[in-house]
Amino acid sequence: MTAAASSDADLIAAHAAGDPRAFAELVRRHRDRMWAVALRTLRDPEEASDALQEAFISAFRAAGSFRAESQVTTWLHRIVVNACLDRVRRRQARPTVPLPETGPGEPVTPRDAMAERETRLVVQTALQELSEEQRVPILLVDVEGYSVAETAKLLGIAEGTVKSRCARGRAKLAKVLGHLRNPDADANVPGSAVDGRGVPTRRQREGR
Predict the structure, then answer these.
(1) Where are the transmembrane segments (predicted)?
(2) What are the structural domains, with CATH classification, of the chain?
């Protein structure tokens, strides 16, 4: 079986066993997707590139401890998010850099391109107005699709803190983005304020 035909779990095992090609194949498969995750989290291509490099180095070193309790992609995703959050904590100011309109494998739907772009810009601006402590949990829960428990573990805070920060952030977003809400969806839970506003959730990107 060639490296390209192996499963992600097989590649991790092969890398841990000393195969010099296995991890390179894993990076080749998932680099674009993990890059999109880093860029969405940091909104700065240079910072995202550095975080991604750090994440893959961490994954390279930690591959031997992978126990297949989750999918390899989920494992990589968490490492990338942690690398991004480490960089966020280390810097004082966050530059405002627009998110790319689409990421790898994320074609624009056949809608009005100008309206789509304007909606994205409105959402991005609204997210920038949130404090970092509110923005990061919302990105993880509402955009990346992590559970409250997973987010709490990633950020090293209590689940109740994640819920309260998300609630406060969503309330602020609801005021700014209220005009974007579909009239037929007025009864939706405020947690959907970010989803469907031009920023696809992880489940949507994976086709679930």
Answers:
(1) none
(2) 3-90 (1.10.1740.10), 113-205 (1.10.10.10)
